[in-house]
Structures are given as structure tokens and as C-alpha cells.
Amino acid sequence: MLKRYLLAPGPTPVPPEVLLAMAKPVMHHRAPEFAQLFGEVRNDLKWLFQTGNDVLTLASSGTGGMEGAVANFLSPGDKALVVNGGKFGERWGKICKTFGVQVVELKVEWGYAVDPQAVAEALKKDPSIKAVYVQASETSTGVAHHTKRLAEVIKPYEGTILVVDAITALGVFDLKTDAWGLDVVVAGSQKAMMLPPGLAFVSVSDKAWQLADKAKNGAFYFNLKKERESQSNNQTAYTPAVSMILGLQEVLRMLKAEGLDAVFARHARLAHAMREGVKAAGLSLFPKESPSDALTAISAPGSVDGQAIYKNLRVQYGITAAGGQDHLKGKIFRVSHMGYMDTFDVILTLAAIEMVLKGLGHPVKLGSGVAKAQELLMA
Amino acid sequence: MLKRYLLAPGPTPVPPEVLLAMAKPVMHHRAPEFAQLFGEVRNDLKWLFQTGNDVLTLASSGTGGMEGAVANFLSPGDKALVVNGGKFGERWGKICKTFGVQVVELKVEWGYAVDPQAVAEALKKDPSIKAVYVQASETSTGVAHHTKRLAEVIKPYEGTILVVDAITALGVFDLKTDAWGLDVVVAGSQKAMMLPPGLAFVSVSDKAWQLADKAKNGAFYFNLKKERESQSNNQTAYTPAVSMILGLQEVLRMLKAEGLDAVFARHARLAHAMREGVKAAGLSLFPKESPSDALTAISAPGSVDGQAIYKNLRVQYGITAAGGQDHLKGKIFRVSHMGYMDTFDVILTLAAIEMVLKGLGHPVKLGSGVAKAQELLMA
């Protein structure tokens, strides 16, 4: 018998209360009861996104939200600055190219955060750039970019919007959509929002809507203007994922009961304990700077294969973590702190990592990382 | 946000597969589909009890099964030898007295197992004793009595049956009902059977049925003869707890897939790691001998109040363990290894105990007990 632990950076564990809410009978989406549900959810999403803007809900994975955040704001031939510091930065570039957008790529070495000054210089050099695409948290490297400072750089450019992939950031750490001036923020259900995969969210500022008015791309399913029209009436343009929205209602109630600051503090505390535990166990963090509180990317030590660590966690101990992607495959492995996580998720993850490494012949002192996390997570 | 961990010696965690099975639509209990379900369950219960005898299922807590195991076999004025080495031994005595049974009490100091020789002497001294009542595992002290050796002592007495409370033993460690000659074995759903509370089980040998034929007590709801009549036709005398039996079907399938020896080995492995972890953390086990693999009873160290440990585990860390009962209140606390438990339940329990003790000012080295358990639980 092997219990299963979902400690990958998405999907993340869904609380029992949320699973129960999702098991409620499916209601018809054109009935008043759905409009009432969706009205509550829409309000609470604004609270979570820290915005007065509409937050649109889409029945898709986060990538659908990313596509919408390209197709609705830019026309073929428009120029976009894409910050590419990992797998998901790369994805922004691919989506832009699919929609005929000219990509000015700002490459960032994996493990580092983009220098806001480099973005400032790129904009200065080419003010025709209409949008800057970035990740608040780059899941492939475990690095958080400096969203607030990027917003400060971009704000003065009246024709340029900042589009933030916050899929592994929203509900993890502070992102002040309105106060900082984040024009488009994309999120997904299966990370800190503690739901199964299946919903994407996009908030859109006035500045971004103005750009959308001029854009000529062919968005049909991810047509955000059309969604805004429907959703402002507590409806959706196409059939919504009703059970997911029932779960979302419960998630938002739980998060509101905890409070946004407490939610961020919890993630920060767990992520900090994990990082210190990793170091105390003699391992190295992969990020060279600005580690994200969403997940911890750990370098495979010495001659140990990172994929073997990832595999043994799953096969021997029932823990689903994540390996490395592309050139980091075998070099790193990643564990999540997002959403429905507590003290003992960190402790058991560290315990399992130590046991796997020892099993693979790496000299690690059992309990060394655990003890550090215990110390930091004392109530 | 505090996740909840159910680590008390009952109720124990219910696997998601079992919760899902229990969420199936309620069927009518006089319909053929129930008879089919109950037929499968009855067969599998025999496998779990290691018996060819009928195993009767009752809609009650384990105590209902204990009552049935007194009321059906003895008449007012009959004599019973009751082994009282803890709270549940004491309960056998109380039930016997309620039904007018004369109790010959064999007191055993809490923390010790009964000496089979003492039972032999009591029977020799008074061969009119018709039944010996004992716990296979005494939950209040964490001690396992020597069931097999007790059976050897009692077997020669043709008019005397051995009645075993196996509520925290069945599915934890080996109990060979037929091979050892355990006449009546009582179990409950909410321990190693991984179900919520609500079902009791009683297996009855031919020797015990012969005694039942002469017994004159007034059992109505817990009338085992009547249940045998109904249940041999895959029905029950009174309304069965249908959803619980749907869950039980899933539990028995899971246990059969794992195999009885593997189930026992898993409990032994986890309990051993817990005991060694407790000692490595500088703490003492409460049992002076024969610790049960169902749970570990730990002595509160030095000046620390055992109730404070129990309370802080729950309030600070979300872990429901158990305190001590009666004169052990404040002196011990108890954690379970029964049922749906794995490596990380042991590890997180030890981590939490260390953190609670340190929080209460007791000098404990964080990670010391955890490291021992990690070593013993390596895959």
C-alpha cells in the first residue's frame, strides 16, 4: 500500500471541502442559480486578483488564458517583448509567433530573474513594442521575476501593456494588479487556487482593452471582449465548467476566510523552510536569485541523476514531484508549496528527498534537512 | 489553514477509494443486489478473520459486538474470567455485570500483558468458568495480550470459550481464529478496517454456538443466533448500514489485493519504526512488554503534561492523537498505526511530537526521532 502525495508544481492537492463542492449536482448554466453563483465568484476573483477590473473565467487550462492574452491584444505584425527565462517564457514566444506577432526576445539565463533595466532599455530602443510578456513565477526554474519593478518600467509607455503569466503566482505571493499596474494577469485553477485543472482566468485593464479595440487577430473561443460582455451579466459566452465553478466558490470562500496576507505568509513560510531544509541537507537550490515561493527547484547533487530522484520519490514513496525540463532534465527536480499545503508537506518532502538520495548512494545525513524545517515551522 | 491528520487509535483515516464507494447510491437492503454485495463481503470477512465460521456483521460500534459476545453466550449467574489490563478489559467486566454474569477478574497492571499461566491457574481453580474475556490489543495501554498462548490454555476446557476483543487487532497482526481456536472474535470498522465507525463484526465457533444454545440472556438487537439465520441467507435481521457495507466491500478488496501477510508486515514495520523513533528522540514507551503494533503509547517525559502534548498536537499542528485514560491521563499519549497509514504518517507524527515537546520546553533534539524512522523505513 502506497499513499499518494501530489507535490508537483501543479496540479496540486484539492481540499476535501472543494471536492465535495464539486460533487454537487450540475446546474444548468443558463439558469438564475448559475448567475447567482457566478456573480459571487466574479466578485471574489476581483478580491483575489486585487483589481477593480473584470476577471474573466475560461473553461481551459492556463495556456488558453495565455493564448487569449496574445490573440486579443495584438495584431499580426505587432511587436511584443517576450521575457524568456524558462519553459513558460518560451511559450509566450511560441504563442506570439502562432498569431503572427513579431517577437523581440529578451533571453534570461535559466535560474535568474530578468533585470528590469534590460526591459527598460529594450523599450527605449523600440517604443513600437505594444506588449511585454513575462512570468511572475517561472515554473521551470523556480525563479520569480520582479513583477512590480517591471510594471514601473512599462507604465510610462502609453501604448505598451504588461502581460503577466501568474499561473504559479496568483495566491502564492503579492501581486497588486491595480496598484502596480499589471494590465493583463493570467491564472490557472490547478495551482494555488487548489482546484483540478480546467479553468483559466484573465484580468484586463482599461489600457489593455484599448489595445484590444484595435487588435485584428482571430480569437473565437478565447475572445475576451465577447466574454466580458457575457460575464458582466454573470453569464459566459460558451458553456462554463459548472462543477469547477462550484469548487471555485468554495476555494474563494476558504481563501477569504484565511485572508490574503495570511495566504501569502503561509506560502512564504513553507517555501522558506523548504529552502533552508534543502540547504541543511547539503543540497543546492537551482535559482541563483529571487526564488519563487510557489515551488523549490533543487539541483541534483554530484553524480546523482535528477530524473532518478524524481522517479524514486514516486515509485518508492508515492510522492509525485517534478523533474527538470529541456536542458535541465536530470539536473534538477522540483517540489511545490502551492495551495493546500502545510508544515508536514514540507517535512515529509524533505524526509523523502533525504531517503531517496541515501538510497541512490549519495551521502546525506537523514533528518538533517527535516530538523531545519522543524525548527522554522514550530507553531 | 491547518490540515487535519487523524492519528488517533480510532477512528482512523478512510482511503479515498472507500469514501467514494460509500458515496454510491443507497440500495434497498431486501433487494437482490444487496444480497449479492453482502455475499461477497461475508466471504471476504471469513478470509480476513481466518475462519470457516460465520462472521456476523452488526450495525453498531465495536461495543455492540462486545455486548453480543456476552449476552449470547452466558446466562445470569454464569461465571466469566475477565482479563482486566486496561480500559477495555474493564469494559468486559461492566458488560458481564450488566447481564448478571459473575465476574472473576484477573487484574493486570496497566502496561503489562496477562500471563497465560495466571489464566491457566484461574481455570484450574474454578472449572465452572464458562468464558474468558480478553483484548488481543488493549488500546488504553498499547499492550498486546498473548492471544495464541491464551487459546492454548483454554482449549482443553470443553465448556469454556475464549472471547477476544480484536477491535484494534484484526487486520493489524496475525490472529488465526480457527487454527488457534479463538471462539468468539469481535472487531469494529473504524480501526485497521479503514472505515468510519458504525459496524461491528463477531465470529463465532461451534463451541461457542453450543454455549449459546443454553444461554438465557435477553439479547434482542444483538441476537447473534437470529443474525446467523438471516446472514447465512445474505440478509440481516435488522436494517443493515448499507453504505458502510459498500465501503467494506472496497476495503476487503483492497486488503485482499495487498495480502494478509503484507498487511501485517506493514503494520509491524510502521509500529517498529515509531517505537524506535520515539526512543531515539529520548522518550519512553509506556508498555513494559509486548507492545501492540496497532498503536504506540508514549510516556510523557519529565514534567511535561501528557494532555498538553495531546492538545498541542491538535491545536498547533492539526494532528488528532489520543491522551491517556483514567490514572494514565496526563501521563501518556497515544498515536495509531492502524489501517490507511504509511511511512510519512510515522515520520510526520514523530516530527510533530518533537516540535510539541520542544514548544513545551522539553529538551529534545529536533529530527532525532525522525532520522531513526527514516533509516528504518527506507524503501
In short:
Helices cover 43% and strands 16% of the residues of chain A. Chain A has 379 residues and is of the alpha/beta class.
Topology of helices and strands:
The structure is a homodimer of 379-residue chains.
Chain A: E1 5-6, H1 16-22, H2 32-49, E2 55-58, H3 62-71, E3 79-84, H4 87-98, E4 102-107, H5 116-125, E5 129-135, E6 137-138, E7 143-144, H6 147-154, E8 161-165, H7 177-181, E9 184-188, E10 200-204, H8 206-214, H9 224-231, H10 242-258, H11 260-280, E11 284-285, E12 295-299, H12 306-317, E13 319-320, E14 322-323, E15 332-336, H13 343-359, H14 368-376
Helix pairs in contact in A: 1-10, 2-10, 5-6, 11-13, 11-14, 12-13, 13-14
Strand-residue fraction of chain A? 15-25%
Overall pLDDT of chain A = 97
Biggest sheet layout of chain A: 7 strands, mixed
Number of strands of chain A: 15
Assigned CATH architecture of the largest domain in chain A: 3-Layer(aba) Sandwich
CATH homologous superfamily title of the largest domain in chain A: Type I PLP-dependent aspartate aminotransferase-like (Major domain)
- CATH level-1 class of the largest domain in chain A: Alpha Beta
Order of the strands making up the biggest sheet of chain A: 2-10-9-8-5-3-4
Uncertain runs of chain A with pLDDT below 50, 5 residues or more?
A: none
Count of domain modules of chain A:
2
Query: What do we call the CATH topology of the largest domain in chain A?
Result: Aspartate Aminotransferase, domain 2
Specify the oligomeric state.
homodimer
Largest protein interface?
Answer: A-B, 36 and 37 residues
Number of helices of chain A: 14
Separation of the first and last Cα atoms of chain A:
31 Å
State Rg of chain A: 21 Å
Dominant shape of chain A: globular
Residues in helices of chain A, as a percent range: 40-55%
Which structural class matches the secondary elements of chain A? alpha/beta
What order do the SSEs of chain A take from the amino end to the carboxyl end, as H and E?
A: EHHEHEHEHEEEHEHEEHHHHEEHEEEHH
